[in-house]
Amino acid sequence: MPIEIKELHIKINVDEKAAATTTEAPVDVSKIMRAVSESVEQLVNIDKRKKER
Question: How confident is the model at residue 2, as a pLDDT?
Fold first, then answer.
């Protein structure tokens, strides 16, 4: 059974001091971008369904 996301709330806190110390760790940007794009697609679909009602 597929999972349907009806609402998505994203909250982040950015600490510049912590970001400066963690730049040495490798980050897989492609995975992050894919997750963000899938989330945006879900949000667009939710918005379309709301407008159809």
Answer: 78
In whole angstroms, give the CA distance from residue 25 to residue 30: 15
CA–CA distance, 3 with 28 (Å, rounded to integer): 25
Write down the pTM of the prediction: 0.47
- Distances from the Cα of 19 to the Cα of 1, 14, 35, 45, angstroms: 39, 8, 21, 33
Q: Is residue 44 part of a domain?
A: yes
User: Quick one: pLDDT at residue 51?
Assistant: 85
Residue ranges making up the domain that contains 36: 28-53
Q: Is 10 part of any domain?
A: no
